[in-house]
C-alpha cells in the first residue's frame, strides 16, 4: 500500500535546509552515470573525517544513535521516500547532530554522487526483501547494487547487514560471495549471541519484542 503524503511535506523538507541533499534521478537505468554531480563530502561536512553510510535509513533512529556515539565519523543516510526522510532529518536537527547528512534518492545512483573509494562502511538494516523472484534485482544486496557499492567503498571497507528475513539473508550471502566479498561475523540470532555494541532500528525493536531472530553479517571487499 502506498504511503499517504504527509501534510506540508514540501515546507518541512525545505526547512531542513542543507541537512537533506536531493539525488534527483527517478529512473532505474543502471547504465547511465554522470560525473559532473560528484559531491565534495569534506565541504558538505566541514571536515575531512571518515565517512560511513546507511542505505535505507527509515525514520533515523539507528543513524542518529550511531552518529551520537561516534562524533568523529561523518554519516550519509540514504532514503528514497521523502515522507520518511523528512522525519529522520528533523530528528537529527532536533538532537543537534552535526555529523549526519541525508541523501534522498535511490541507491542505484549513488556512484553518480559519491566520490570513488570514499566510504569506509555501509549499513543495510532491514532492507525490503522483495520476496517475488521477479523483483530480485530490487534487493539492496543484488549484485548490481553490490557493484555500485564497490565503486564508492574504500579498499577493505565493510558492509554490515541486519535483517529479519531468512530468505533475503541467504540470498545476500550468495550475492556477496559471487561479487568478491568475504563474509564474517555471521549471526543467525543476533540478540542471543555474544555480539556487543548493537544499535537497534525501529523495526528491530519491534521484531525483538516479538521474539523473532535477527540475522546479521559483515561483508568485506576482497577484490
Give me the secondary-structure topology.
Elements: H1 9-15, E1 20-22, H2 41-45, E2 51-55, H3 61-69, E3 74-79, H4 82-94, E4 100-104, E5 119-125, H5 143-152, E6 153-163, H6 166-178, E7 181-187, H7 202-209, E8 215-221
Parallel strand pairs: 1-4, 2-3, 2-5, 3-4, 5-6
Antiparallel strand pairs: 6-8, 7-8
Mean pLDDT: 92
Please provide the count of β strands. 8
- Helix coverage percent: 25-40%
Give the end-to-end Cα distance, rounded to a whole number of Å: 40 Å
Q: Give the class from helix and strand content and strand pairing.
A: alpha/beta
Which architecture per CATH? Answer: 3-Layer(aba) Sandwich
Low-pLDDT residue spans: none
CATH topology: the name is Rossmann fold
What is the domain total for the residues?
1
Q: Rg to the nearest angstrom? A: 17 Å
What about the largest sheet? 8 strands, mixed
CATH class: Alpha Beta
CATH superfamily annotation:
Vaccinia Virus protein VP39
Structure description:
The protein has 223 residues and is an alpha/beta fold. It has a single domain (44-221), classed as Vaccinia Virus protein VP39 (Rossmann fold), CATH 3.40.50. The protein has helices at residues 9-15, 41-45, 61-69, 82-94, 143-152, 166-178, 202-209, and strands at residues 20-22, 51-55, 74-79, 100-104, 119-125, 153-163, 181-187, 215-221. Strands 1-4-3-2-5-6-8-7 form an eight-stranded mixed beta sheet, sandwiched between helices. The mean pLDDT is 92.
